[in-house]
């Protein structure tokens, strides 16, 4: 991440420096040389680590140095390229230096090797190779000589430093000689050996493929795939100690892990890399800097890596790199190198009159910034030129490197500051980061880039607003379900979404972009009905706009837009009636209005939604925010690992504003960014219940968890946690003797049962102080008893579903009990457990046995027990048991239909069936009316008297409305047939009531 | 064609088949003008409800059998609408407040009080009070019972309350003391046998005494169940034979099967399967204490003497916890887990001793 940004920022200065550059290295370096030098950085980057007081500065200097010297090669090359440029440049300028760095390049040696890279083998080979190439011999010789010399100088320092096992130094030393030619190569033009090498390769692949070969190749891939499937996990897990590097020691370096490593799983290796700030890629590409290779590595990856000249590391190599980067091997070197530089920077600071001590331990961010900036300027003014000169004189002394670096960095920084601070540089110092890094144009808004994004929609809507609302045409109200509405109908837009994702920013920027004058009202303004009316309407109904609407549009210079921010904050006495007024305002507004709110489903907002073009903002994805945050980190010179940024973003639930605030907070205590800060961030993470239950039972997790941590797991969701634990504890295989498993299970179940007791107490007595106790019984104890690993899948607690099913059945049973109550004697329970099966049997048996003949006897039973047709279904549901076949299933479908028909025809409505009828009617809404067309006709024909009696009937039985309707069906048909004899209808309608009473 | 249980239900006190002394007492009670609140208690299927209806008929005549059911709607203090079904005649109202779940207090306060406050309009009726029958009184929450006790006292002039409960243990003493308790014990075996025989006679069937005896045993002296089973047996095989098979109730069979599965295998995986079966029982509305009882009975029958005591100990402990707790499955499962544990241990020890 950081690298990418680096390279991005470098462009500006490099352009600026173009003229300055005079190193004579004008040739465009071909791709191959660039790649070849990718590794140089590794040695280079030791320095930022070693420089104690301000790592950012040094890093900057380093990178920008490259730029300043580099010519107009501003291809969109990411970091590695930039680094290469640097090296190639320095080659020309002061070859010795480059050599020195290059000497540590292990890549060259392993161009095509697939195996672990422990001992650099092909030294001679490489030399030979280069001999064949037409290179500028003289240059080469110089380079080699110098590189050797540099090597010697460097070496003692390295050896002195306490190296962890398998020190990479010797390796590097050996490699150094082939490296020199590599540098050469980079100098040479397109006709480099690299290019040559590649050509035959390509030929082989494309042209000469016969069918056989193709077949062979297919077979090979199949074999490889089989191998891949069968390949083991790591060979000797934990056999090697993972070195403890300093945090972020790999920052900015990209890795790809392939194959089976010796001591780590691949995921483990990746997490190690991430932990130290490195990036893990999935595809071998230009940006990749190291390929970490294990057994059975993917040959394709290796081939590509070879082609791109990406250094290949073994697992040990990775560890060495970590050690190296984290400065374990450098304390001596550091001392040697840095004093001069430190001295100089300190001098600079003193000159500036700032207390230099404070500089070193940054207490408050702004102060530091201030100091830095002033320092930068000074550096530039006073030291740049002399130092630049110096570098040319002094040859291979390490200190020189540092000085050289310093120079461009100061320039670069100045430039970047100027860019950022463009409008008002002074203001920035005291500004919060959120404001400071506010997007300044719509392209910078995070996650709003697409064509279908809200920004685009809003732009579109706003730009067309005056065209759409010029009073000439009246746009149709769009279908609420229309997908791609452009909102032309609406006079206002409503931006809704969670806080901190850029709604207000979007609105203001869009207005700015389109040249609108934004008038903003937010929750801090009183927005009562009266005020809105007076202030806003005068503001909006501005005379100057009137001219615009009269057709001389362009004459008016400025257009207005009203931003109503935080409309859901319109509340209380202050803003009384504000919403109504706002709606009224929208209705006859002559300017566009943009409203913003968080919760668009809020009852207050709901009325507003109808008048607004609805634009919903979603939270940007983590990756989108991460980019932004990383660039801010870079601008603010905060060093933070990408993994940690991800953590912070996740912890803030993808809230950009809050993430920035967090970063800003972390930067304030810069020292602790790596340690204490990290812990804070991880603690804030909210775990899902699945993750929680996994942690509760996994022995691996228990290792570094205190008792408090374990009980904290429960509190991630204390209502779900016990259920999850209960559902899943049987999936766990506990550690220890197999014989004891059941004892452990029993102990766990016992603890859970006690936990349930406490749960009941908590909820019935509001004794929430018992919650920690419940945590122990419901989560910690089970975790202790069953500590092991999951063998099964973690399931969602079944209790919830079962409980609701139990509730549903209980409801059915109650209904059944209610209906049969007047003729049975049992309680609800006995009806359900004793009656139900026999009752159902009595109804279904005749149907099953006699078919259509049995219908009437079945119906008799139903009548006797006052059952509804629906009750039959609930009876069936209540008597089904798993594995038992219901008798009703064997009944022919036609018989069932006959029963239903006969039931509808014969059975009178009960008082409770009325209710069911009403409910049904509501559901069917319009459908119900169509059912009784005849009835309405009949009523109309029936004449005055009949209608009156009908009305009376209705009044009498208002609550039995459904009952009457249900009964009217047959009546309707009769009335129709009889040509509308109203009395028939009303008399039949009255009947059911009487019957029901009976 | 109603089921036999309902078809041959006695409608008058004089026609009751058992507890005849008690019936006589009740008749005498009706003859007096005064009439206390009553509480009928006894196990399910012993005829409480039948007796109550007979009593009402004795008091008000056959008018009491003209029942209508109505749905009453109440609004709870928390603005929730609840519906309760009532069955009423002109003289009495039968309600089951526990239908409203935790809102039964509202039912007591609104409905019962309102009915109790109104006077009987029809002076010509034999009594000047109405009767409110509260069924499943032991399901009433404490709140509802407290609401009831004052009502019982205050409106004693206009209404009498008859509570039907399974056990008085869950009725607060205040209510118990306000009621005349009438215990309706389950009919004895010979009583049930004779009733079954009578029923068969009326249906024109002959019932072998052995079969009758087995029916009684199977029904656990629950008369309702016995009659239902008799009818089911008739359906299965019409001329009764002595060794005719009497099918179990589904849930009983399921429970027994569950118990035997516990005996057959003791592993966490099995426990998980058992959990599913227990869930199934709970979903079907089998009360958890019945599940406990069924499990324990079946388990104890199938295990060695040495672990019987331990099993019972666990059962009592977890059932107690279950009553105090919220989620019954937790405690049922814990019991099963404990049993599996001790049973497995017992088995492994058995193997060890056998080896020697």
Automatic annotation (TrEMBL), chain A:
Pfam families: AAA, AAA_lid_RFC1, BRCT, RFC1. Belongs to the activator 1 large subunit family. Residues 971-991 have a biased composition (Low complexity). It comes from Drosophila ananassae (Fruit fly). GO terms for molecular function: ATP binding; ATP hydrolysis activity; DNA binding; DNA clamp loader activity. Residues 245-326 form the BRCT domain. The keyword Secreted does not apply. It comes from the Eukaryota. Keywords: ATP-binding, DNA replication, DNA-binding, Nucleotide-binding, Nucleus, Phosphoprotein. GO terms for cellular component: DNA replication factor C complex; nucleus. This is Replication factor C subunit 1. Gene3D superfamilies: 1.10.8.60, 1.20.272.10, BRCT domain (3.40.50.10190), P-loop containing nucleotide triphosphate hydrolases (3.40.50.300). Residues 1-216, 329-416, 922-998 are annotated as: Disordered. InterPro entries: AAA+_ATPase (IPR003593), ATPase_AAA_core (IPR003959), BRCT_dom (IPR001357), BRCT_dom_sf (IPR036420), DNA_pol3_clamp-load_cplx_C (IPR008921), DNA_replication_fac_RFC1_C (IPR013725), P-loop_NTPase (IPR027417), RFC1 (IPR012178). PANTHER family: CHROMOSOME TRANSMISSION FIDELITY FACTOR 18 (PTHR23389), REPLICATION FACTOR C SUBUNIT 1 (PTHR23389:SF6). It is found in: Nucleus. GO terms for biological process: DNA repair; DNA replication. Residues 927-942 have a biased composition (Acidic residues).
UniProtKB/TrEMBL annotation, chain B:
GO terms for biological process: DNA repair; DNA strand elongation involved in DNA replication. Signal peptide: none annotated. The keyword Nucleus applies. SUPFAM superfamilies: P-loop containing nucleoside triphosphate hydrolases, post-AAA+ oligomerization domain-like. One of its GO terms (molecular function) is DNA binding. One of its GO terms (cellular component) is DNA replication factor C complex. It is found in: Nucleus. Keywords: DNA replication, Nucleus. Subunit of the RFC complex, an heteropentameric complex consisting of a large subunit RFC1 and four small subunits RFC2, RFC3, RFC4 and RFC5; the RFC complex interacts with PCNA. Forms an heterotetrameric complex with RFC2, RFC4 and RFC5; this complex has ATPase activity but is not stimulated by PCNA. The heterotetramer of subunits RFC2, RFC3, RFC4 and RFC5 interacts with RAD17. Interacts with CNTD1; this interaction facilitates crossover formation. Subunit of the replication factor C (RFC) complex which acts during elongation of primed DNA templates by DNA polymerases delta and epsilon, and is necessary for ATP-dependent loading of proliferating cell nuclear antigen (PCNA) onto primed DNA. Belongs to the activator 1 small subunits family. This is Replication factor C subunit 3. The lineage of its organism: Eukaryota, Metazoa, Ecdysozoa, Arthropoda, Hexapoda. The gene is Dana\GF14225.
């Amino acid at each position: 991440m950081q690298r990418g940004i680096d390279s991005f920022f470098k462009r500006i200065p490099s352009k600026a420096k173009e003229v300055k550059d005079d190193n004579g290295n004008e040739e465009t370096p071909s791709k191959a040389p660039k790649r070849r030098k990718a590794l140089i950085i590794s040695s280079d980057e030791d320095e930022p680590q070693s420089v104690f007081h301000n790592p950012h500065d040094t890093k900057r200097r380093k990178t920008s140095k490259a730029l300043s010297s580099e010519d107009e090669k501003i291809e969109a090359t990411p970091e590695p390229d930039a680094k290469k440029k640097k090296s190639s440049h320095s080659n020309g300028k002061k070859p010795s230096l480059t050599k020195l760095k290059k000497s540590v390049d292990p890549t060259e040696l392993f161009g095509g090797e697939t195996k672990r890279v422990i001992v650099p083998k092909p030294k001679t080979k490489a030399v030979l190779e280069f001999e064949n190439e037409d290179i500028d011999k003289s240059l080469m010789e110089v380079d080699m000589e110098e590189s050797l010399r540099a090597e010697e100088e460097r070496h003692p320092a390295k050896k002195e430093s306490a190296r962890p096992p398998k020190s990479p130094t010797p390796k590097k030393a050996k490699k150094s000689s082939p490296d020199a030619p590599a540098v050469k190569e980079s100098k040479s033009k397109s006709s480099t050996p690299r290019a040559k090498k590649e050509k035959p390769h390509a030929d082989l692949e494309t042209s000469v493929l016969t069918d056989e070969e193709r077949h062979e190749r297919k077979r090979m891939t199949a074999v490889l795939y089989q191998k891949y499937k069968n390949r083991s996990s790591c060979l000797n897990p934990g056999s090697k100690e993972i070195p403890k590097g300093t945090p972020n020691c790999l920052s900015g370096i990209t890795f790809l892990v392939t194959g089976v490593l010796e001591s780590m799983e691949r995921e483990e290796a990746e997490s190690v890399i991430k932990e130290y700030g490195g990036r893990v890629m999935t595809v071998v590409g230009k940006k990749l800097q190291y390929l970490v290779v294990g057994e059975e590595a993917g040959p394709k990856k290796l081939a590509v890596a070879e082609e791109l000249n990406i250094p290949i590391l073994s697992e040990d190599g990775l560890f060495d790199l970590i050690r190296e980067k984290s400065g374990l091997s450098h304390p001596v070197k550091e001392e040697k190198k840095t004093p001069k530089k430190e001295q100089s920077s300190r001098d600079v600071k003193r000159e500036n009159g700032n207390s230099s001590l404070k500089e070193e331990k940054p207490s408050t961010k702004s102060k530091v910034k201030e100091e830095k900036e002033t320092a930068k300027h000074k550096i530039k003014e006073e030291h740049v030129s002399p130092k630049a000169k110096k570098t040319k004189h002094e040859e291979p002394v390490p200190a020189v490197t540092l000085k050289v670096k310093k120079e461009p960095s100061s320039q670069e920084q100045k430039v970047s500051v100027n860019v950022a601070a463009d409008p008002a540089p002074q203001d920035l110092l005291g500004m919060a980061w959120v404001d400071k890094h506010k997007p300044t144009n719509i392209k910078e808004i995070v996650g709003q880039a697409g064509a279908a994004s809200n920004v685009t929609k809003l732009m579109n809507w706003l730009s067309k607003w005056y065209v759409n609302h010029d009073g000439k045409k009246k746009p149709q109200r769009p279908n609420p379900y229309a997908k791609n509405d452009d909102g032309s109908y609406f006079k206002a837009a409503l931006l809704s979404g969670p806080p901190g994702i850029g709604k207000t920013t979007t609105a203001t920027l869009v207005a700015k972009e389109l040249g609108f004058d934004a008038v903003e009202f937010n929750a801090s303004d009183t927005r009562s009905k009266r005020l809105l009316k007076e202030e806003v309407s005068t503001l909006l109904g501005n005379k100057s706009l009137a001219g615009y609407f009269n057709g001389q549009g362009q004459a008016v210079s400025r257009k207005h837009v009203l931003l109503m921010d935080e409309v859901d904050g319109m509340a209380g006495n202050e803003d009384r009636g504000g919403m109504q007024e706002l709606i009224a305002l929208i209705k006859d507004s002559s300017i566009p209005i943009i409203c913003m709110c968080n919760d668009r489903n809020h009852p207050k907002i709901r009325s507003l939604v109808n008048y607004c073009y609805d634009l919903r903002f979603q939270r940007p994805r983590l990756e989108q925010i991460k980019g932004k945050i990383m660039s801010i980190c870079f601008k603010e010179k905060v060093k933070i690992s990408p993994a940690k940024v991800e953590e912070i973003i996740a912890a803030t639930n993808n809230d950009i504003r809050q993430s920035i605030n967090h970063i800003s907070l972390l930067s304030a205590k810069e020292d602790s960014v790596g340690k204490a800060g990290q812990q804070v961030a991880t603690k804030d993470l909210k775990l899902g219940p699945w993750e929680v239950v996994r942690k509760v039972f996994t022995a691996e997790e228990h290792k570094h968890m205190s008792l408090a941590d374990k009980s904290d797991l429960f509190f991630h969701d204390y209502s779900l946690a016990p259920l999850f634990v209960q559902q899943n504890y049987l999936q766990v295989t506990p550690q220890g003797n197999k014989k004891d498993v059941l004892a452990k299970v029993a102990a766990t179940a016992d603890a859970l049962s006690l936990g349930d007791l406490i749960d009941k107490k908590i909820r019935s007595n509001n004794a929430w102080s018992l919650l920690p106790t419940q945590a122990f019984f419901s989560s910690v104890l089970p975790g202790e008893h069953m500590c092991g690993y999951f063998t099964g899948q973690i399931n969602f607690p079944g209790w919830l579903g079962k409980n609701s099913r139990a509730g549903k059945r209980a409801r059915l049973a109650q209904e059944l009990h209610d209906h049969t109550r007047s003729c049975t004697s049992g309680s609800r329970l006995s009806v359900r457990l004793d009656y139900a099966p026999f009752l159902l049997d009595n109804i279904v048996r005749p149907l099953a046995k006699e078919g259509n003949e049995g219908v009437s006897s079945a119906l008799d039973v139903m009548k006797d027990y006052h059952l509804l047709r629906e009750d039959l279904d609930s009876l069936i549901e209540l008597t089904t048991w798993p594995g038992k076949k219901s008798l009703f299933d064997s009944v022919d479908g036609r018989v069932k239909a006959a029963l239903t028909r006969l039931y509808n025809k014969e059975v009178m409505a009960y008082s409770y069936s009325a209710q069911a009828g009403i409910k049904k009617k509501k559901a069917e809404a319009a459908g119900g009316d169509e059912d009784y067309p005849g009835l309405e006709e009949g009523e109309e024909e029936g004449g005055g008297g009949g209608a009156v009696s009908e009305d009376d009937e209705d009044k009498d039985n208002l609550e039995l409305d459904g009952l009457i309707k249900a009964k009217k069906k047959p009546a309707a048909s009769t009335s129709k047939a009889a040509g509308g004899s109203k009395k028939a209808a009303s008399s039949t309608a009255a009947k059911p009531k009487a019957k029901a009473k009976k | 064609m109603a089921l036999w249980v309902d078809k041959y239900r006695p409608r008058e006190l004089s026609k009751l088949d058992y507890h005849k002394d008690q019936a006589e007492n009740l008749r005498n009670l009706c003859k007096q003008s005064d009439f206390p609140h009553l509480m009928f208690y006894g196990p399910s299927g012993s005829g409480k409800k039948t007796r109550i209806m007979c009593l009402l008929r004795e008091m008000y005549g056959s008018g009491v059998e003209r029942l209508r059911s109505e749905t009453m709607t109440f609004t709870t203090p928390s603005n929730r609408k609840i519906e309760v079904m009532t069955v009423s005649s002109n003289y009495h109202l039968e309600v089951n407040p526990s239908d409203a779940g935790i809102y039964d207090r509202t039912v007591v306060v609104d409905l019962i009080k309102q009915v109790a406050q109104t006077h009987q309009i029809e002076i010509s009726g034999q009594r000047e009070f109405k009767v409110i029958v509260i069924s499943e009184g032991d399901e009433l929450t404490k709140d509802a019972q407290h609401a009831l006790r004052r009502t019982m006292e205050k409106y004693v002039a206009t209404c009498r309350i008859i509570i039907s409960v399974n056990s008085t243990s869950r009725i607060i003493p205040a209510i118990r003391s306000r009621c005349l308790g009438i215990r309706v014990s389950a009919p004895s075996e010979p009583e049930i046998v004779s009733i079954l025989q009578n029923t068969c006679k009326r249906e024109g069937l002959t019932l072998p005494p052995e079969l009758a005896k087995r029916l009684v045993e199977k029904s656990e002296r629950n008369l309702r169940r016995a009659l239902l089973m008799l009818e089911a047996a008739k359906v299965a095989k019409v001329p009764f034979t002595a060794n005719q098979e009497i099918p179990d109730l589904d849930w009983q069979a399921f429970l027994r099967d569950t118990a035997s599965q516990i005996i057959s295998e003791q592993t966490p995986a099995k426990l998980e399967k058992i959990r599913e079966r227990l869930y199934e029982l709970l979903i079907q509305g089998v009360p958890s204490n019945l599940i406990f009882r069924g499990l324990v009975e079946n388990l104890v029958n199938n295990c060695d003497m040495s672990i019987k005591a331990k099993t019972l100990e666990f059962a009592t402990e977890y059932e107690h916890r279950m009553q105090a707790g919220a989620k019954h499955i937790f405690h049922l499962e814990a019991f099963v887990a404990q049993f599996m544990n001790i049973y497995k241990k017992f088995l492994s020890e058995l193997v060890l001793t056998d080896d020697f």
